[in-house]
Amino acid sequence: MSNSLFRKKSLAAIMNDAREGASDAHGGGLRKVLNVRDLTLMGVAAVIGAGIFSTIGQAAYNGGPGVIFLFILTAVTCGFTALCYAEFASRVPVAGSAYTYSYVTFGELAAWIIGWALILEYSIGNIVVAISWSSYFNNVLEGMNVHLPAWLTTDYQTAKAAYELAVKNNTAVDQMAYATAPMLGNWRVILNVPAFLIVVLITIVAYVGISESKRSANAMVGLKIVVLLVVILIGVFYINTDNWTPFMPNKFEGVLKGVSSVFFAYIGFDAISTTAEESANPQRDMPRAMIYSLIICTVIYVVVTLVITGMVNYSEFNHISDPLAYVFDKLQMEKIGYVISISAVVAATSVILVFQIGQPRIWMSMSRDGLLPKKFAKVHPKYHTPGFSTIVTGFIVAIPSLFVESGIVTDLTSIGTLFAFVLVCGGVLLLPKAEPGTKKFNLPYVDGRFIVPALFLIFCFFFRDKISDTFVNISTIAHERVLFLIFLILTALITVATAVKRYSLIPVLGMLCCLYLMIEIPVRSWVVFFGWMGAGLIVYFLYGYWKSKLAKQS
Fold it and tell me: Does the keyword Glycosyltransferase apply (predicted)?
């Protein structure tokens, strides 16, 4: 059984399955309509979203203006990973992203685990974005004097908590959602209807065609970039450089507190790889689009962070959900703040669209391999999209967005994504060499046998106090230190393997950076993550293990 858990698919078999999937679909399968500009804008559409319009505020509060270093560090980490994704996308130009890549290099069990983890990134991540979208949309309506009933714009737990807090503080509760909600038996009807409706509308767009999705995403990206440029051009005249002192008020530890929110801001660039079968020239365009989108987004994040922390002191951003609008409202420029709120709605919409495009294509690939029912692989004969998978994705996101608590943290999504990134970087090291003369993107080889050990020693020097404290107090060690100890052991093993086998530097650095970001995520989120993965393994052993195409072949 152990051998069957790690059965792998060859590159030739994956390409053949993709061709068979296209031939089985009436009209030739997915349409190849995306060029490098479309792919780049799709990456920007996914990345420039809730991160810059909401979570950037709390990250700035914890790290001060110095949080830009975390943006740069995260961008470098994502850059290493993007190069690894680019080589895979060039060598394996089919839908499926990290799931397909893991099937080639690590085997079926790892592929299933990654496919299950990607549901966290795309589906659960989209629930968070949809709830954020609802909040922004409601603010825009309020600015137009359109007032939706409070019980139709939030979830039950959030409404109840707000009501109890108001009662405790002896403040008015007459207009609050919990107080005004109609009763259905003993249950108060409190539902986040705007979040539900936007997911339904976006699912329809994703269902009717990639061309329509492409045009919608491109238009939304253009609008939000224009708004952000306006923010920068106006805000730069209101910068007070005294607000940049101290630059890192809570030192680097404070900067690292924003790991989850900052990394969540970058999640999505990898969704480009799920559209490989709809790219006109994936070998050439995929690598370029990933790098271009990361560079564009990093520049925007860094400049916007410097501007808003220059306009308003970092200490004012605690629990501010709309920091860009806040800084202009504080300077009595409410109209600009209102325009920013509209742009935030557009930005969140584009994120939902890209993720709703990505998830069905991963399921389509898993279905082709037999790990999911055949229905998930069916391509619509008219719209040339994975229709059934798209509808299922819509239900999985739309229904929970009605009632899931708006305080959902981004940590779970970040863990699932970083886990996928680690396996993609490691998988590149196991890829067979490309045949001579083939036009594929290849990572530049840099021998890591001396550089990685040197970096490991430097890391140990700067973290010597933490390492010493971990080993001295190992009997009463905190959970956070357990994660650090595991990271240290894995890093040592990867360093030794790199020195012995002369692994390429870029994928090794990608693995190490992602592993470090993972240990900065709170332990409570790891508990939920392992519970999620356990449920995924149950599904695999009840269905996927027995129905797999490779199982039938063997």
Answer: no
What is the extent of the structural domain holding 169? 156-190
Could you report the per-residue pLDDT of 65-88, keeping only the tens digit for each?
888 888 888 888 888 888 888 787
Output Rg (C-alpha) for the chain, integer angstroms.
Answer: 24
What does the pLDDT read at residue 188?
85
pLDDT score of 26 more than 50: no
Confirm whether 489 is domain-assigned: no
CB 270, CB 419: distance < 8 Å: no
Same domain flag for 254 and 166: no
What's the Cα-to-Cα distance from 274 to each of 30, 37, 86, 296, 428, rounded to whole Å? 12, 16, 12, 20, 17
SS (H, E, C) 24-56: HCCCCCCCCCECHHHHHHHHHHHHCCHHHHHHH
Please state the length of the chain. 554
**pLDDT value at position 501?**
92
Nearest to 77 by CA among 524, 554, 531, 512: 512
C-beta neighbour count of 16 within 10 angstroms: 12
DSSP 440: -
Neighbours of 392 (CB within 10 A): 19
Does residue 516 belong to any structural domain of this protein? Answer: yes
Pick from 314, 329, 311, 302: nearest CA to 237? 311
Alpha helices in 312-333 (DSSP H): 323-330
Sequence letter at residue 304: V
Q: Is residue 219 part of a domain?
A: yes
Domain count of the fold of the chain: 2
467 lies in some domain: no
CB 189 within 8 A of CB 151: yes
Supply the DSSP symbol for 519: H
**Residues near 495 by beta carbon (within 8 Å), at least 6 away in sequence:** 452, 453, 456
pLDDT value for 27: 46
Do 310 and 343 have their domain in common?
yes
